[in-house]
Amino acid sequence: MTFRNLGVILVTSPISIMTQPLLARTKQFAIDVWYLCSKLPNNREFNNYVNQLLRCSSSVAANYRASQRAKSTADFINKLKIVEEEADESHFFLELISEVNRLENIKIEIIRLIQEVNEIIAIVVSSIKKVR
C-alpha cells in the first residue's frame, strides 16, 4: 500500500495499518492511567501502588511499540509476552487501588481502565496464539 502526503511517498504495509490502533490504544491507556494516578491521594499508603501502576502501564505501551520492531518471530512473541505480563500487572494494581479507594468520583474511571486493560490483554494473547 502506498500513500502520498505532500509529494512524499509513504510506504506502509497492511500489518502496520492493522497495528496502529493498538499502538494508539496502549499509549492512550498509559496516559489515562497517568491522569487517574494524578487524582489519587499523595500519601505513603497510595504511593507504592501508584508508582508501580505508572511503571507497568507505561511499560505496556513501550513494549508493544518495541514489538513492532522485533527482529524475528521469536523476538516478536517475546515482546508480546512482556506486554501481556505488564498489562496483567496493571490490571492487578488497578484492582488493588479500586479496593482501597474511597473516592467515589474515580471509581468509574478505574472500572473503565480495568475493562480497557482486559481488552488489551485479550488482543495480545490472541496475537501470540496466531503468530505461533
Provide structural commentary:
This protein is mainly alpha-helical. It has a single domain, classed as Up-down Bundle (de novo design (two linked rop proteins)), CATH 1.20.1440. The protein is 78% helix and 6% strand. The protein has a two-stranded antiparallel sheet. The radius of gyration is 17 Å and the shape is elongated. The protein starts with a strand and ends with a helix. 23% of the residues are buried.
Strand tally: 2
CATH class: Mainly Alpha
Secondary-structure class: mainly alpha
Tally of DSSP helical segments: 4
Poorly predicted runs: 1-18
Describe the sheet with the most strands.
Answer: 2 strands, antiparallel
For this structure, what is the CATH homologous superfamily? 23S rRNA-intervening sequence
Shape from CA axes? elongated
**In angstroms, what separates the terminal alpha carbons?**
26 Å
* Secondary-structure element pattern, one letter each: EEHHHH
The tally of structural domains comes to 1
Strand order of the largest sheet: 1-2
Radius of gyration equals 17 Å
What do we call the CATH topology?
Answer: de novo design (two linked rop proteins)
Mean model confidence by pLDDT: 87
Measured by DSSP, the beta-strand proportion falls in 5-15%
The second-level CATH architecture is Up-down Bundle
The portion of residues assigned to helices is over 70%
List the helices and strands and how they pair.
Layout: E1 2-5, E2 8-11, H1 14-39, H2 44-67, H3 73-100, H4 107-131
Helix pairs in contact: 1-2, 1-4, 2-3, 3-4
